[in-house]
Design a protein that fits this description.
Largest sheet: 5 strands, antiparallel
Helix content: 25-40%
Structural class: alpha+beta
Strand content: 25-35%
Shape: rod-shaped
Radius of gyration: 39 Å
Order of helices and strands: HHHEEHEHEEEHE
Strand order of the largest sheet: 3-6-5-4-7
Distance between the termini: 116 Å
Length: 234
């Protein structure tokens, strides 16, 4: 009987103890089936993680509040373009919803993404002109100028004298005496659109409310009574 040599296929066959050891080692590692399950589960987790990474974050509760979409100056009228809804958990006192702020006027400047509260809006007591400023009503005689004004605009307030300062040397045209009362005033409110035509007869083009530096407030109020004020855009 021939003894199998090292190169004989029969000599390469696993012996009984080797087959037993291989099965025991596979059983310790969980065997081929558990390994395949683990690999499939790992692949699924990788796919799920990638999907979650690209999905937008969703609100998980909270209260719907009004948030500004851009930096807004004092006197801005709030509308759909300037306010969005955001759901937040920790809300400040006096936070309002978009429905509550629609059409309201800002009493102070706000930053983009700021939650709007009642302290930021003009109340029945009147608008807050801001630190160092005073709210002064001004009746402008020119309806064309009033039609161009919008809340939040910055203008200079000018007083036009009754007399003239003499003829211009180049043109010979008489020029009025103009005094700058405030270089930077902010328009808080303007007349409603319906307040036009006959409704303004006898009362000028319309009364606007300006936030002016406190030092110039008295002079502006006095000239407003005389009807000698106008504004220019800065």
């Amino acid at each position: 009987m021939r003894t199998p040599g090292p190169d004989d296929p029969a000599g390469l066959a696993a012996r009984g103890w080797q087959r037993w050891w291989s099965r025991w080692a596979d059983r310790r590692r969980g065997g081929p089936a558990p390994r395949q399950v683990r690999r499939a589960l790992a692949a699924v987790l990788v796919v799920v993680g990638g999907v979650l990474a690209v999905l937008p974050a969703r609100a998980t509760g909270g209260v719907a509040v009004a948030v500004t979409t851009d930096d807004l100056p004092v006197g801005s009228v709030l509308d759909e373009a300037r306010v969005r809804t955001e759901s937040v958990v920790a809300i400040p006192d006096g936070a309002l919803t978009p429905e509550q702020v629609a059409g309201r006027v800002l009493a102070a400047p706000v930053r983009r993404g700021e939650i709007l509260t009642d302290a930021r809006l003009v109340t029945a007591d009147g608008p807050d002109p801001g630190s160092g400023r005073v709210a002064v009503p001004v009746n402008l005689p020119d309806p064309g100028v009033v039609a161009l004004l919008r809340p939040g605009l910055h203008v200079a307030v000018l007083a036009v004298g009754d007399g003239t300062s003499g003829a211009d040397a180049a043109t010979g045209v008489e020029t009025a005496v103009v005094t700058v009362l405030a270089e930077d005033a902010v328009v808080l409110t303007v007349p409603a659109p319906r307040e036009s035509g006959a409704a303004r007869l006898g009362s000028g083009a319309g009364t606007i409310l300006l936030a002016v530096p406190a030092a110039a407030a008295d002079a502006i109020a006095a000239h407003a009574v005389l009807g000698s004020l106008t504004v220019r855009f800065t």
